[in-house]
Specification:
The chain is α/β, with parallel strands linked by helices. The protein has 2 domains: 99 residues, Aspartate Aminotransferase, domain 1 (Alpha-Beta Complex); 234 residues, Type I PLP-dependent aspartate aminotransferase-like (Major domain) (Aspartate Aminotransferase, domain 2, 3-Layer(aba) Sandwich), CATH 3.40.640.10. Helices cover 42% and strands 17% of the residues. It contains 14 helices and 13 strands. The strands form 3 sheets. It has a 7-stranded mixed β-sheet with strand order 2-8-7-6-5-3-4, with helices on both faces. The longest helix is centred in the C-terminal third of the chain and has 16 residues. It is globular. The chain starts with a strand and ends with a helix. It binds ligand TLP. Ligand TLP binds next to α3.
Length: 346
């Protein structure tokens, strides 16, 4: 029996043997009392890696983003974000539902940025008709824009704009590690202008569970209260933090391999009749492409590939997403290309 090539997401990665050992041996305590030594160690490590005063371990990227938005904004305050943002599309409108925060979306450019002039123009003046604009949220790498990496100078410029107008900047860095590896920059450099950051250990880094938020000490104190309010205070969470520490120490540099696999996949797909993709836009581990063959659409292609043991998500009527990760080998990519080609010939 051949094994399934699962390209639906890097979230499908299972913990490595080193993670399982670290989890079994983790020293733990009650983290709501601040007494879990492994969680404390992880939080110190994350703060260091991101160049921030403090960090907080949270169960998921979704909760990390929610906690940050709610720690920056009150009810009726406004947040500016891209129309392709994960916070806008895939988090059930949590900041509006839970926190009453008004999302104002601006078009994302294909490279994941938002035009600076549009951002500047969207910041409200002091008028009793308007909500108060409090926050700008960016995403790096940008998932729905195809894993694109935001240029550090662009992030700095958005931070400067936000701060000049009395706003805060949050970065959804679920895949910040991929951005850092792709650029050969430190993660801290990429979030230097941000007032808060969320990062994930459970995507390309392969930890089973967990994310973190980071920022100034006073912000993290508020975020910690907010985490408890939304039910994210965990007890002997050191068993999870132990895997996240291994993820940070052992799994970041190897992301370059996933990026190379994604580039190979994109170039191979570009040569298949019935597929449309610009492979030069693939910068990290996410590959979006369109099926343009008459009689085919994305759900049909996704189902046909699944029947041959290749799993990808259809994300729009004619668009599919493939995400590379550490359980995907170079041979899996070649096999995927052969199968896509064969399936589209049927
Ligand atoms: N993204 C998932 C799905 O939700 C789409 C995926 O398979 O890519 N920010 C970004 C940029 C993300 O891509 C994700 C997960 C999250 C936040 C949320 O993380 P979790 O799943 O831990 O809540």
């Amino acid at each position: 029996m051949t094994t399934v090539i699962d390209l639906r997401s890097d979230t499908v990665t299972k913990p490595t043997p080193a993670m399982r050992r670290a989890m079994a041996e983790a020293e733990v305590g009650d983290d709501v009392y601040g007494e879990d030594p492994t969680v404390n160690r992880l939080e110190t490590l994350v703060a260091e890696r991101l160049g921030k005063e403090a960090a907080l371990f949270v169960p998921s990227g979704t909760m990390g983003n929610l906690i940050c938005v709610l720690s920056h904004c009150g009810r009726g305050d406004e947040m500016l974000l891209g129309d392709q943002a994960h916070i806008f599309h895939y988090e059930q409108g949590g900041s509006a539902a839970v926190g009453g925060v008004h999302p104002r979306i601006l078009p994302n450019c294909p490279d994941g940025t938002i035009d600076l002039q549009q951002l500047a123009g969207a910041i409200r003046g002091d008028d009793e008709h308007f909500p108060v604009t409090r926050l700008i949220a960016l995403e790096n790498t940008h998932n729905r824009c195809g894993g694109r990496v935001l240029p550090p100078e662009y992030i700095d410029a958005v931070g400067a704009l936000a701060h000049a107008r009395g706003l805060k900047l949050h970065i959804d860095g679920a895949r910040l590690w991929n951005a850092a590896v792709a650029l050969g920059e430190s993660p801290a450099r990429l979030v230097a202008a941000a007032d808060s950051v969320s990062v994930c250990f459970s995507k390309g880094l392969a930890a089973p569970v967990g994310s973190a938020v980071a920022g100034p000490r006073e912000f993290i104190r508020r975020a910690r209260r907010m985490r408890k309010q939304v039910g994210g205070g965990m007890r002997q969470a050191g068993v999870l933090a132990a895997a996240a520490i291994v993820a940070l120490e052992q799994m970041v540099d190897r992301l370059a391999e996933d990026h190379a696999h994604a580039r190979r996949l994109a170039h191979g797909l570009a040569n298949i009749d019935g597929i449309r993709i610009d492979p030069t836009t693939v910068e990290t581990n996410i590959v979006y492409f369109d099926v343009v063959k008459p009689g085919w659409d994305a759900p049909k292609l996704s189902a046909a590939l699944a029947a041959e043991g290749v799993r990808m998500n259809d994300t729009a009527p004619y668009r599919l997403r493939a995400v590379t990760h550490y359980e995907i080998s170079a041979a899996d990519i070649e096999r995927t290309l052969t199968i896509v080609d064969a399936v589209l010939r049927t």
